[in-house]
Amino acid sequence: MPLAELTGPTREALELVRDGDQFKWYAVWMLVAVFWMYSTEIERRAWPVVAAGLALWSADWINEILNSVFLELNDTAPFWATTGPTAYQIFVGLNVEISLMFAIFGLAYAKSLPRDRDLRILGMNNRVALALLFSCIAVFIEVILNQLDVLRWHWWWWDWPFVPLIVVFGYLWFFLVAAHAHDLPTDRARFMFVGKLAAAAAALALVTGVLGWI
Question: Rounded to whole angstroms, how far apart are CA atoms 131 and 147?
Answer without folding.
Answer: 24
